Give the backbone structure.
Amino acid sequence: MIEWLLDGTLAALLLILAIAVIRASGLYASVVLFIAFGLLLALTWARLGAPDLALAEAAIGAGLTGVLLLGALAHARPERPSNTLYGYRWPAALVSMALAALLIRAVWPLAETTQPLPAQVMTELEASGVSHPVTAVLLNFRAWDTLLELLVVLFAFLGLRQLRLAPLAHTEPWPLLAAWGRLLAPLALVIGGYLLWRGTSAPGGAFQGGALLAAGLVVLRLNGVLPALSWRQWPVRLGVLLGVTVFLAVAALTHAFGAGWLTYPVAWNTPLIVAIEVAATLSIALTLALLVVGEPEEVHP
Amino acid sequence: MTLALMSLLLPLASALVLLVLRARSPVLMILATLGSLIAAAGALYQVVDGGEQLLALGGWEPPLGIRFRLTPLSGLLLVFTALIHLLVAFYAAASRHSQTRHTDYWPLSGLLHASLVALWLSNDLFNWYVTLELLGLVAVALVTLAGPKAYRAAMRYLILSLVASLFYLLGVALLYGRYGVLDVALLASLTEADATTHTALLLMTLGLMLKAALWPLHLWLPPAHAGAPTAVSALLSALVVKGPLFILWLIWSEIAPPALARDMGFIMALAGVAALLSGGWSAMRTPYIKTLVAYSTVAQLGYALMALGLLLYWELPELHVALWLFVLSHGLAKVSMFLAAGEMQATLGSKRISALTGATQTMPVAMFAFAVAGGSLIGLPPSGGFLAKWLLLQPLFAEPANWFWAFAVLLGTLASAVYVFRVVALAFDRAKPTRPDFDPHVLAQWLALIPALLVWGMALVSQPLILWLTGVTH
């Protein structure tokens, strides 16, 4: 009964928040509500028994996306009230409901199917070099997907770079932020590192750890503790590209000298995976931090 | 398979090197593309000689892992991608107007090349999702190189591309939930005609059609392709929209239950006809040069969609050849057309078609390239476009019941003739030619002409090409 109450409340709150995000009076309110929505979604994933997703959602979906949205809001011109989309409301609602009906019809029969793949993952787990099934899938069984996902992060950053945004005017950090920042940032670094380390045996890993590290970097930068981060500095460029480079080098070397593209030698399983994860975490953290507080480059003629 | 992987790794690694060094020199990228082309040709030779190759990445066979599949067709697409990239790279390095000097064009084009190769090699529904994501992001980044005036089109492209990705992903999730596998070959033996499968395939089709700019989901394409820097427009029209088309072709010809494929084929063929007519109509009416070329891409994709639809509807294997010949000949012709159009637009100093008055006198080589490429788009012999259209028309003429489709192709041809000759006729009006703002650049014009000559050359080897493609596609 209690569980049912919790799940029901979660589901209802998610729906209410989703509607509130769309209906909020200003973009700022929408963004704040969206962050709350992300946190609740993380809780929902945890309730559904997917702690990996919950962590990722909390760190990336709620935390980082929220910061990025707030940053975008700061870049945007002040919004004007507009009613241009008002007329599309009912047609949009109708289309959504039709789509929802279609989806429910498609998803319903899936409740009775059982997935053979998780069992197969568990039987091969021994050979993967890590003891957490999600990490095994991400960094061994389907490592190629993860390599490309790292490229997705890189591409997103490169795309944003082309826009040559003007820098945001940073105000003097207010005392509370300065005081808490000094406490929060090391904590974020430690927890980020811990999440990365834990990733081999329990929920955690490069994306979640990287997002937390990025949060630490952003807080430190806003406090003025960290010097400006810019693509002009070669260590920054190297750091951003490190994850992809290490991963690709492993792939190419295993293909040239080993058993095949991304086939880790048995004895090197764990160290290789940890090395890739560390490099990926650093790159993700740096890329995400650059997205939020990166200084623009000199403007070309 | 090693050579195919080399073809992937070379442009990717060079792009990373360029990024680390913050270098803007074309030399490394051109060398890498050349290397990639040679590797791709080697891979094609091997696969034609020794048959299809499979590579289980990480040593894990599907359903646990991802499997690369190098078929003769994907080998051909590797060569095609590297060749187009090389031709465009020569132009981009030589032309004064290619907007590549002060931008990240070179690393981004290498990343685009690698993303495409990853897509052609993959055979896994989820891995395709990631490659589609890569393709969309890098394409949008390339469009933004044109500067703030292209931002609106790029933003719309980005949002629609993300929406399309989500539709596709939803479909993949449903298929995975239903069958527990993502590998196309495995899935092909499992699919049944039930509600989940139908919904999944429809969602994926919607997403892929949006990404490939197939009618009626094409409206984002003209502003994005016309607003991008010229070299980028060529890459986007020749290659990027073909990626989703490749996936669409594979899921419908391999995974889909036959009854559904037949119904869907009919709808696709009708959408293809609509694309021919609406794209042709808009190209006839637009006042801008590059927008005309971009609408012509919408119309030409209509032929490909029609070939795909009819091959599903009638289960005619010959049409596979027609489909891929369309893709190859359109790719080459469109590169030439976009490069020539962009070069003329920049030299003559106006985006308007009216600026091309007398261009046969001021920029004869570029205009010749435009006309030759246009001839292939219309389907005039001798050209690759003619071959593709001929193959498409043969089954249409065979039975009177199919004459509706033949009539549609005829109308589409008429429309493309109108929009090509609209430009060519103006260019021969030498009484008062538009005075160029700059000295016409001869080398850049010749580089724009090469792809058009290649598409002409396809006609010289037509019979072996068709026979070979027939063997390749099935």
In short: The beta strands of chain B are 53-56, 67-70. Chain B has 20 helices and two strands.
